[in-house]
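Box 3.1 — From sequence to structure: Neprosin PEP catalytic domain-containing protein
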Amino acid sequence: MRKKMRELFLVLLFLVCLLNGVGAKRVVSTLRLARIQKHLDRINKPAVRSIQSPDGDIIDCVHSHKQLALDHPLLKNHMIQRLPSKRPRFYGERLISNSTITKQAWQNWHHVGHCPKGTIPIRRSSINDVLRAKSLYHYGKKRRRQWPPTTTSTTTRSPNAPDVVSGNGHEHAIAYTGTDQELYGAKATINVWEPSIQVGNEFSLSQIWVLSGSFDGSDLNSIEAGWQVSPELYGDSRPRFFTYWTSDAYQVTGCYNLLCSGFIQTNNKIAIGASISPISSFDGNQFEISILIWKDPKLGNWWMSFGDDLLVGYWPAELFTHLTDRATMVEWGGEVVNTRSDGKHTSTQMGSGRFAEEGFTRSSYFRNLEIVDADNSLSPVQSITTLAENPNCYDIKSSSSSEWGTYFYYGGPGSNPKCL
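Predicted structure (token representation):
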């Protein structure tokens, strides 16, 4: 009886895929559907409450002790840390933006519901989400970068430039710290846009990287958070709050958001992977998110807060090798994937799709760059280096002010007469 029910279920799944246009492109075998469904059963934990978001997402409120993170073999005996032992103390005079057109962005699903205490909100994964990926194995993962990295840019690199940013079609406009510092976290405020994406397997993101390990090997540790537009991952072109982690240079470990075990969420208000709304407009209001990542000085877990110091959760120290000690580099900025699908440079936009020189209300920016030191003090960044592999496609310009501290504008349209 159970076997017949399972077969009937798979047939229904097959029909659903046909109705959603999947079968128009390729036939999906019932065996593959069964494997996908088994994976979804593992990552979509039972919900206390489910919320239908206006953007089409389903947000499941899952009991915090049932979250996928705790399935990780390294976290079998892990006790959830409810709060960090200490939050970073700001060193110096806190700068506050007085602009009336910068506002905090939030998330769409909050308009229709909330998750009760003791649960965490998780964006439900669907069969179509998995089918858009290259394979079930690749679902929720960044594609591995080439080693050694390559670049078509004529930009002269500093000896300490983070080579990890190049290769395999990934292009960047970033600011980064030197490798001579002891780093225990980073913060920034980022305005949010909706860049256009040329083809479905490309993406555009703006994020913070907290890094340690070798840039030319297979042991790089990276913690990442920001906003991204990725039609392949999410099925639409909305900007979404996201995270990522890896402890082996994107080879096997880690994933986006909560699509694999690892990141432990403690907050019932933020859904990682959910869309951000409202977003910035050209010559209009600028909507921002603030992200802080730092290492707990007592237990060594890497915590993340969103917005006005709203704790989201943490990456346990057990996940990492080099980051169990400290970070050796922090990067802030934008990244796109250029697949050259039509034989020339992609027209996928970075940030707002405008170059850095267009400035406030037109270009994307990171402002109030800050780092956390060994004393758990949060202080303004005094010195950064900037890098854009293809400045005719995407560029970056940094500066400082009494209101925004160290900041930079970045981005670009991709393909244009000078970017081929």
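Summary of the box: The CA atoms of residues 130 and 138 lie 9 Å apart.
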